[in-house]
């Protein structure tokens, strides 16, 4: 019995151990499964969080774009400032006199041969001298942007040389510059030989003077056979001319199409009302695409509005609908006609104000008025009786006053935008 009991106990112990072992394995598997499930849930949670963060970031980005760019534009479009009408010419002058500036533009012509770097030559020809023109402009932004005329920003495109494309200068260069000259010697060669273009005419005039003196000499030599001498002289002249032609025919000169005249700005600057001939440096930043829209935008190189300018010309309040500008309504111009000649006073540079009337309806580009204007007033702002910008002065007739024109304000607005 004891043997059988001990065997049973052993069997029981073995079965118990096997059962316990089985339970432990089962528990371990369950724990492993729970752990892996927990890890999966954690990774899924992390992925969900990342997805949520991306969505939140995208929403924030959209809100920023709406808040910074789109909403202000819509707000500005549908909630414009109420126009405060100024009472008279004096109030308009007082409000905008500091915003209107005298513009000075100095430029010169340079030469480029066969695509060479443009260079300037020092010769006895005023075509290559520096030229300075004056005009008017007015501040339209806090970062120093100035509206003026295209012909003030690029004066060479509107003067008498525009039509012939500097053809006379090109002909001159082509006549004296051999094609064989090296690029580095273009400048020095042209400066040395520039006046050879006029050589034949000069020799001809000297020959005429000598012929005038000949009769007195001939009278003292009576025994000389004049006909034989004349024949010999003619033969010599003919031989010399043929030799010169042979030499000249061997020289190949620069082609016209290889010559380019390049206008270059030397300096653009503006002076403020009340300043003592102090000039602030500018740069040209925009030009109207169409030649008939004579408008351009300058900007101070400092990109900062001067402290003395408290009121800019607000383009948001300008008259956009030029069909509303009716003949007979007042037109007030603030500018610098005649440039420094009228602007310079004992108390510094002073802007002037002139008043007239609209004479003709706008054609969509320009409007006509009888406000006094002349050279130097190009680029002046023209206001209505409320002080709203209606045009940018740009042209008139030298022969008579009272026939002047301005580019309607909408073109300046679109260019600044």
What does this structure look like?
This protein has helices at 2-78, 89-96, 150-153, 161-164, 167-176, 186-193, 199-220, 226-249, 340-343, 409-416; strands spanning 100-113, 131-139, 145-148, 259-271, 280-287, 296-300, 330-335, 344-345, 348-349, 352-360, 366-369, 381-383, 389-396, 404-408. Helix content is 41%, strand content 22%. The strands form three sheets. The chain has a six-stranded antiparallel β-barrel. Strands 7-10-11-14-13-12 form a six-stranded antiparallel β-barrel. Strands 8-9 form a two-stranded antiparallel ribbon. It has ten helices and 14 strands. It is of the alpha+beta class. The protein is extended and about 105 Å long.
Could you outline the blueprint of secondary structure elements for this entry?
Layout: H1 2-78, H2 89-96, E1 100-113, E2 131-139, E3 145-148, H3 150-153, H4 161-164, H5 167-176, H6 186-193, H7 199-220, H8 226-249, E4 259-271, E5 280-287, E6 296-300, E7 330-335, H9 340-343, E8 344-345, E9 348-349, E10 352-360, E11 366-369, E12 381-383, E13 389-396, E14 404-408, H10 409-416
Antiparallel strand pairs: 1-2, 1-4, 2-3, 3-6, 4-5, 5-6, 7-10, 7-12, 8-9, 10-11, 11-14, 12-13, 13-14
């Amino acid at each position: 019995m004891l043997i059988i009991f001990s065997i049973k106990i052993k069997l029981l112990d073995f079965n118990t151990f096997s059962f316990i072992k089985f339970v432990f394995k089962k528990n371990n598997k369950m724990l492993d499964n729970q752990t892996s499930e927990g890890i999966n849930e954690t990774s899924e949670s992390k992925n969900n969080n990342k997805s949520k963060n991306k969505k939140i970031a995208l929403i924030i980005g959209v809100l920023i774009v709406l808040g910074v760019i789109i909403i202000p534009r819509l707000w500005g479009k549908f909630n414009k400032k109420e126009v405060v009408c100024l009472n008279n010419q004096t109030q308009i002058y007082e409000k905008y006199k500091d915003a209107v500036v005298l513009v000075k533009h100095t430029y010169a012509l340079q030469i480029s041969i066969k695509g060479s770097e443009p260079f300037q030559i020092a010769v006895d020809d005023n075509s290559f001298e520096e030229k300075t023109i004056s005009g008017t402009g007015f501040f339209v932004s806090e970062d120093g942007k100035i509206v003026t005329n295209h012909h003030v920003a690029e004066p060479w495109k509107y003067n008498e040389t525009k039509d012939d494309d500097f053809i006379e200068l090109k002909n001159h260069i082509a006549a004296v510059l051999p094609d064989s000259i090296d690029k580095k010697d273009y400048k020095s060669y042209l400066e040395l030989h520039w006046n050879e273009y006029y050589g034949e005419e000069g020799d001809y005039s000297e020959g005429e003077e000598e012929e005038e003196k000949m009769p007195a000499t001939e009278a003292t030599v009576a025994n000389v056979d004049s006909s034989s001498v004349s024949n010999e002289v003619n033969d010599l002249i003919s031989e010399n001319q043929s030799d010169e032609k042979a030499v000249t025919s061997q020289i190949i000169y620069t082609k016209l199409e290889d010559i380019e005249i390049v206008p270059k700005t030397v300096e653009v600057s503006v002076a403020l009302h009340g300043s003592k001939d102090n000039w602030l440096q500018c740069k040209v930043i925009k030009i109207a695409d169409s030649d008939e829209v004579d408008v351009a935008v300058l900007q101070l190189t400092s990109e900062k509005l001067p402290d003395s300018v408290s009121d800019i010309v607000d383009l948001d309040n300008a008259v956009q609908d030029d069909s509303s500008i009716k003949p007979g309504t007042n037109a007030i111009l603030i500018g610098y006609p005649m440039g420094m000649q009228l602007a310079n006073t004992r108390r510094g540079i002073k802007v002037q104000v002139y008043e007239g009337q609209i004479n003709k309806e706008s054609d969509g580009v320009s409007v006509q008025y009888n406000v006094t204007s002349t050279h130097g007033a190009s680029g002046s702002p023209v206001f209505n009786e409320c002080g709203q910008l209606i045009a940018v002065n740009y042209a008139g007739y030298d022969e008579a006053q009272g026939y002047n024109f301005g580019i309607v304000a909408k073109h300046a607005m679109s260019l600044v935008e």
